[in-house]
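Usage

Read records sequentially. Each one opens with the input sequence:
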Amino acid sequence: MLKKDNLPLGIVLGLLTPLLAFFLYYFFVIRPHNNIGLGQFFAILKGNRQMIPKIVSICLLVNGLVFFLYTRTRKDVTAKGIFLVTMLYAIGILLLKLIR
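and closes with the structure output:
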């Protein structure tokens, strides 16, 4: 499935990669140092909305890595889907920072 070169695959990868990165960030960075549960972490994020764009930005770095890997293997249509979703995330981050 990951060897295909199509736009829907890029969109799905672009959507799921930051989610996976978020959970990896929680389990390897937040949880060992603070010893809080995932529900508590979501409550902290809900109470402190300034953290949300920062964490989403960190998670988008992994999207950049996946985009780079797909462009290196000449799967440009899939890379376009990843880039499209990354730009949508970036617009969302900007909106979150403006709304505060």
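Summary fields computed downstream for this record:
- The chain has a mean pLDDT of 89.
- Residues 7-99 form one domain.
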